[in-house]
Amino acid sequence: FFFYYGDKMFQGTNLKYVKSIQLTATDGCYGLFQGCESIIKVGDISMTGNNSNWYSNESFFENAINLEEVGNIYSTRNKENGTTTGAHAFFRNCKKLRKVGKINMSLSGGNSFFRDCSSLVDGSIEQLPYTGKMTNGVYMFRNTRFTTIELENLSSLQNADNMFSANPNLKTIHLPNIDR
Hints:
Number of strands: 10
Helix content: under 10%
Radius of gyration: 15 Å
Order of helices and strands: EEEEEEEEEE
Strand content: 15-25%
Structural class: mainly beta
């Protein structure tokens, strides 16, 4: 389908629950639920197309302020395929988000990915996205409630300004594959 940058497809609706999402013609969708204040739960999301979306997966759920739970997220742009997707502000300002399944995508940019998701705590996310090719992580985990964050790889990271800021509970950051 065609989507204008900046449109908010479900904003102002009463949509509360989505069983699953299967995008077969594209590998992402900019702002699909951006500004949808009514959405509470979304099941598994699968993005299996190979038609690269201009704005990737940016702002997918941004400002979905009542979103509480999302199932597994799969994109063909993942570590196994060696491809990446932009996912800036993917869950930004989802203040009630408390549970996310496995996030199987490889990020090129993840700034503000979980920013202001103040209900996220340890164990809330089954698997974080792959960050080995991510260059921008600005505000990625700002204002979450994790005590420990473990990322597999940050070897391409160039900008991490405030990546972990405003996290009063954060005690441990584990970065096993970073150059010292």
